[in-house]
Amino acid sequence: MIGSLRMVGRNPIVNEVREMPIVGGTRVFRFARGYCLAKKHSMVGFDVVIGYNGVLIFVFHILFGSPGLV
């Protein structure tokens, strides 16, 4: 697994497009920064398909002697 991204902020489903900041993540994305745009593609009952487009800036650090980072 490469890692995961962490997004925070309001996500009001009634808006057509929502913008949320990317404030970090796990593993190689630990110091990631950026933003993500979320848009609802379809909704049938309680089933919703949401598309995410993001702009990401992250610093890739390799710490010698620390296993499991890459």
UniProtKB/TrEMBL annotation:
The protein's name is: Dirigent protein
Taken from the UniProt entry, a GO cellular component term is:
apoplast
Which top-rank group of organisms is this from? Eukaryota
Q: What does this protein do?
A: Dirigent proteins impart stereoselectivity on the phenoxy radical-coupling reaction, yielding optically active lignans from two molecules of coniferyl alcohol in the biosynthesis of lignans, flavonolignans, and alkaloids and thus plays a central role in plant secondary metabolism.
From the Swiss-Prot or TrEMBL record, state where the protein is found. Answer: Secreted, Extracellular space, Apoplast
Q: What residue intervals traverse the membrane?
A: 43-64
User: What is the organism field in this record?
Assistant: Nelumbo nucifera
Q: How does it assemble?
A: Homodimer.
